[in-house]
Amino acid sequence: MNIRDFEYLVALAEHNHFRKAAEACFVSQPTLSGQIRKLEEELGTALLERSSRRVLFTDSGRKLVAQAKTILADIQLFRELAAEQSDAMTGPIHIGFIPTVGPYLLPKIVPSLKTQFPDLSLFLHEAQTRDLVRQLEEGKLDCLILASVPETAPFREIELFNEPLSVAVPSGHEWATLNEVDMALLDGRTVLSLGDGHCLRDQALGFCFAAGASDDEQFKATSLETLRNMVAAGAGITLLPQLSLPKEREKDGVCYLPAVNPVPSRSVVLAYRPGSPLRVRFETLAQSISDTLGAVGLSS
Questions:
Q1: For the chain, does the N or the C end have fewer beta carbons within 10 angstroms?
Q2: What letter would DSSP give residue 221?
């Protein structure tokens, strides 16, 4: 058996589908299926229930999947230890981003990172917080850039910047002539929000609920751009993070207003496993990102 066998086994357990697992491992379905069979023959035990149309693991299979995850995590740690012995900013690094940060942050920082660290190979992965946390725990990702939430508490965090949230209203809204919006004005209002799974949903709604606003239960957005378009269509108001805002105060039917009393915000951090030997690399990366964002008015 080899490392790829463990990767195939774990992928199959995560996707519960041979084709999807094969795609995740960048091999054909027959290749993955054949390797799983060979692994069973080598181990002398059945890992899957072959009579089922679904992917069902036997009791032995589930135990071995758990052990395979541990082995792969140890291998990742081994690689990190080896990387620590060389130039801190060389080789591959896998970074996870949440959808409410990645599309707006990456264009600002990637060109600078590539210029500063030409020998560093960036692999960027976008997913919701829950999935990113799991992948970081399993060693599939080296670090995460996301909003600090309770789920990230087990990790080490380096704050990159504190990002205020602005109120977005339709251009013809009664507040469009204001210079800023006191959060008390949201009392009794209904706000549009992201769907479940987005950490920004809970953070933004926390400020809105404290002000006396309620969530629009009839609509849940899948992205900030959907929220923006719904506001432009006159469907309601929302809170949007600063990085996602245009330079203009008003654009394409949406007016963006600073919120005060209090200023709603979120802390965006770089998170990594406490035992990772790549601490210096992460600190260097975080400092570079902070320096770049300082030029656009965002700081920790």
A1: N
A2: B
Whether residues 137 and 185 share a domain: the answer is: no
Give per-residue pLDDT as tens, 53-78: 678 888 888 888 888 888 888 887 77
Distance CA 41, CA 43 (A): 5
For residue 255, the cross-strand partners are 169, 250
Total domains present in the chain: 3
Token pair for residue 180? Answer: 């800023």
Task: Domain of residue 239: give its range.
Answer: 162-265
Here the tokens at position 106 are 């990456």
**DSSP H helical ranges for 59-101:** 59-84
Q: Is 200 contained in some domain?
A: yes
- Convert the pLDDT of each residue in 151-193 to its tens digit: 999 999 999 999 999 999 999 999 999 999 999 999 999 999 9
Residue 299 lies in a domain: no
Is 63 a domain residue? yes
